[in-house]
Design brief:
Blueprint lengths: L2 H19 L11 E4 L2 E7 L40 E6 L3 H4 L10 E2 L5 E4 L3 E4 L5 H15 L6 E7 L4 E6 L5 E4 L5 E2 H7 L12 E5 L2 E5 L1 H6 L8 E2 L4 E4 L2 H4 L4 E6 L5 E4 L6 H7 L8 E13 L2 E7 L4 H9 L7 E6 L1 H37 L1
Parallel strand pairs: 2-18, 8-14, 15-19
Antiparallel strand pairs: 1-2, 3-4, 3-7, 5-6, 8-9, 10-13, 11-12, 11-14, 15-16, 17-18, 17-19
């Protein structure tokens, strides 16, 4: 081989050695537990059934516990009359008292904002806080004292307006929900406003009661059989249903490494490891190490949990479908040794081709020159 060829081969060797020495993006995984810069890294095996726990949310001092709202049995309620309610009083065999305005009499009288009601011969009555039965007794007593002997009185609430909760956000008919004598639960109230609309995120429903806020994951409740039908809604409660777009910032999972498409995968309500990998186009069969699929989770400010899946075992793929990801998890697929070599070849082949072509050109020039000299 001539000097030029030897020199070019030397250049190729230098390039090869440089490529081998070049740093690769490989996952340096702790064997069990290690500490780095004050942060503890702990390794878990998904294959062994270590499925992880949800990231604890920083406790808001105003956030209440959902269990405090649950009741064992729904109580039977006696409705107490309030301002703006509609009340109908019937005095049997005395239509002039039942409908003193004749056929133009509406179905009952409206309680004033001060909580009072005027009735003929009974005068002005303070009805706020009374049940229909208590008001019936009071009217019977007053009519007996003035004009009737043993009056037969019936009292009914025909319009419920004083006791209400407010529902806002991503529901079909936001507004007030009025209470009658029947107890109202969370599902009852949601149904009353037409249910969630198509833009709702039912996993972040909030109930505000006084100075407390209660977070209700409607989807998880149905999935895990949490009895939200035992949560009573009370008058003056506020229920808020956020839009999905409002929660999208934190409802994401990052998939990177040896996948076919590095992706940010948005979570709706539930996202498994298998679903996230599929959304990223699957693992790259040429470069990926199926035994080194990791989920990296910032569990607390001082702890990072790393969950490893060995997908060489077909049964492990079923575990990937069961592994539930948390918002802002990082899914990383490490490169295999063969994958590193394949990538290395793809990087150096153009250079080697150029070296080979240059060597041939030089040899051809030398042959032409030698032929000319002869």
């Amino acid at each position: 081989m001539n000097k030029i060829g030897i020199a070019l081969c030397g250049v190729a060797g230098a390039i090869l050695s440089g490529c081998f020495a070049a740093p690769q993006m490989r996952m340096d995984v702790p064997t069990d537990s290690t500490t780095y810069n004050g942060i503890t890294f702990k390794l878990h095996s998904i294959d062994n059934g270590e499925m992880g726990e949800p990231v604890p949310v920083a406790q808001n001092p105003l956030e209440g516990k959902l269990e405090d709202l649950m009741v064992d049995t729904l109580p039977s309620l006696e409705y107490r009359i309030g301002p703006l309610d509609q009340v109908q009083v019937v005095v049997w065999e005395h239509p002039e008292l039942t409908s003193p305005m004749g056929q133009y009499q509406p179905a009952g009288q409206k309680v004033t904002t001060e909580g009072t009601l005027f009735y003929p011969y009974a005068g002005e009555l303070k009805v706020e806080g009374l049940t229909a039965q208590e008001l019936r007794k009071e009217i019977t007593k007053r009519l007996s004292d003035k004009i009737l002997n043993d009056p037969q009185v019936d009292v009914r609430v025909t319009g419920y307006h004083s006791r209400k909760a407010f529902v806002t956000g991503a529901v079909n008919r936001p507004g007030y929900v009025h209470f009658d004598e029947n107890p109202m639960t969370i599902p009852d109230v949601i149904a009353e406003v037409g249910g969630f609309n198509e833009k709702a995120d039912p996993s972040f429903v909030q109930l505000r009661r006084g100075d407390k806020v209660y977070n209700i994951d409607y989807v998880r409740a149905f999935k895990e059989n949490i009895p939200i039908e035992r949560i009573l809604v009370k008058p003056d409660d506020q229920l808020f249903v956020p839009l999905k777009s409002e929660m999208e910032r934190d409802r994401k999972v990052y998939v990177m490494g040896e996948v076919n498409k590095t992706s940010i995968v948005r979570m709706d309500n539930y996202l498994s490891l298998a679903e996230a990998l599929t959304a990223a186009g699957g693992v790259n069969v040429l470069y990926a190490a199926p035994s080194d699929i990791y989920v990296i989770r910032n569990t607390t400010p001082n702890k990072i949990d790393v969950y490893q899946l060995n997908a060489k075992n077909a049964m492990a793929l079923a575990m990937a479908d069961r592994f539930e990801l948390n918002p802002r998890d990082i899914v990383y697929v490490d490169a295999s040794g063969l994958g590193t070599w394949n990538r290395l070849l793809s990087l150096i082949m153009p250079t080697m081709q150029a070296i080979y072509t240059s060597t041939n050109v030089v040899q051809n020039i030398q042959e032409i020159n030698n032929a000319g000299w002869k």
